[in-house]
Amino acid sequence: MSKEYNVAILGATGAVGRRMIDQLAKSTIPVKSVKLLASSRSAGTHLKFRDQDLVVEETTPDSFDGVDLVLSSAGGSVSKKFLPEAVKRGAVCVDNTSAFRMDEDVPLVVPEVNPEALKNHHGIIANPNCSTIQMVMALEPVRRKFGLKQIIVSTYQAASGAGQAAIDELKKESQAYLDGKNMQEDAHILPTKGDKKHYPLAFNLLPQIDVLEDSGYSHEEWKMIHETKKIMLNDMNSKDIKVTATCVRVPVPIAHGESVYFTVEDESATAQDIMDVIANFPGDVLQDDIKNQIYPQPINAEGSRDTFVGRIRPDYENPGAFNMWVVSDNLLKGAAWNTVENAEYLVKMGLI
């Protein structure tokens, strides 16, 4: 009889946490029991796992007694506080926050891209940033076949990347605009909650995601640059692939879009070659039929675990350079599903 696992979901009541519950229910992980954990404010909430009605508990260090696997998406400070306690008690944790991503001793894993990194875990596995995940999903088959020299990415990131409250705020602002009212009165979260100023997202674009750093880059842009290198090259500061990013928040509820310009080492590669390797890569769906206006769109990607890739075309001015358009549900493949999928791989590989 195969082993069954006692699972805890930390941050269970959030937008990602609720999707983790759903993805765990649909996963291949043999689940013995599920414990839902959140802050004292959310304790007492009732949520369903399969046909079970579960009560959310307040998180304490003792919450992890007897737990084999922790799926976490409750914010970086919460992860730093509680995940080491879970590891002390024998649990393996997959964390969907930025708390441990750049820690040299913590694998940063997209299962289709670098599953072997899971073997080096010391109790904690980090889920990459949502925008990084979909980009490396699209580019990894290209890198394996043709090599990668450079990546220039511009993101079009959905409001949900800042949580359910940002989606709610976008809806309020949209209604205010349509009613001829001042949207600024409803702007309390974006571009980032902890910054000095807040701007409306409805009918607007915000070229800031996370805090702006002295380098001129936002922290989201910094994350995309260094996470990509850590995932693909196992070195966040590697110079073997040049990466730069511009990250923009757009008035879309769910699913990020990305315009990705990349240069390959093998200049004999054609756009059709690029399409072929992407179409055959697990988790990627090629949507590239310009004659019939078929290309990835957020409205169609929402609710899917896949990464959708299209508009693949060469840069005729630069041999070996190409453009592509990438869309994925940032709450699923970008968060909840990638977390549960990492846990599936841990089980399959006998690492938990």
UniProtKB/TrEMBL annotation:
Where phosphate is bound, by residue? R101
Q: Which keywords fit this entry according to its UniProt record?
A: Amino-acid biosynthesis, Diaminopimelate biosynthesis, Lysine biosynthesis, Methionine biosynthesis, NADP, Oxidoreductase, Threonine biosynthesis
- The active site annotation covers C130 (acyl-thioester intermediate), H256 (proton acceptor)
State the Pfam families in the record.
Semialdhyde_dh, Semialdhyde_dhC
Which GO terms label this protein's molecular function in UniProt?
aspartate-semialdehyde dehydrogenase activity; NAD binding; NADP binding; protein dimerization activity
Semialdehyde dehydrogenase NAD-binding domain residues: 6-121
Could you tell me which InterPro entries the record lists for this protein?
Answer: Asp_semialdehyde_DH (IPR012080), Asp_semialdehyde_DH_beta (IPR005986), NAD(P)-bd_dom_sf (IPR036291), Semialdehyde_DH_NAD-bd (IPR000534), Semialdhyde_DH_dimer_dom (IPR012280)
GO BP terms: namely: 'de novo' L-methionine biosynthetic process; diaminopimelate biosynthetic process; isoleucine biosynthetic process; lysine biosynthetic process via diaminopimelate; threonine biosynthetic process
Provide the binding site for substrate. Q157, R249
- What top-tier enzyme class does this entry carry? oxidoreductase
Provide the E.C. number(s) assigned to this enzyme.
Answer: 1.2.1.11
Sorted alphabetically, which SMART domains does this protein's record hold? Semialdhyde_dh
Pathway listed for it?
Amino-acid biosynthesis; L-lysine biosynthesis via DAP pathway; (S)-tetrahydrodipicolinate from L-aspartate: step 2/4; Amino-acid biosynthesis; L-methionine biosynthesis via de novo pathway; L-homoserine from L-aspartate: step 2/3; Amino-acid biosynthesis; L-threonine biosynthesis; L-threonine from L-aspartate: step 2/5
What's its catalytic activity?
A: L-aspartate 4-semialdehyde + phosphate + NADP(+) = 4-phospho-L-aspartate + NADPH + H(+)
Q: How does it assemble?
A: Homodimer.
The family annotation for this protein states: Belongs to the aspartate-semialdehyde dehydrogenase family.
User: Which PANTHER family has this protein been placed in?
Assistant: ASPARTATE-SEMIALDEHYDE DEHYDROGENASE (PTHR46278:SF2), DEHYDROGENASE, PUTATIVE-RELATED (PTHR46278)
Q: Summarize the protein's role.
A: Catalyzes the NADPH-dependent formation of L-aspartate-semialdehyde (L-ASA) by the reductive dephosphorylation of L-aspartyl-4-phosphate.
Name used for this protein in its record: Aspartate-semialdehyde dehydrogenase
Q: Which organism is it from?
A: Lactobacillus intestinalis
Encoding gene, per UniProt annotation? asd
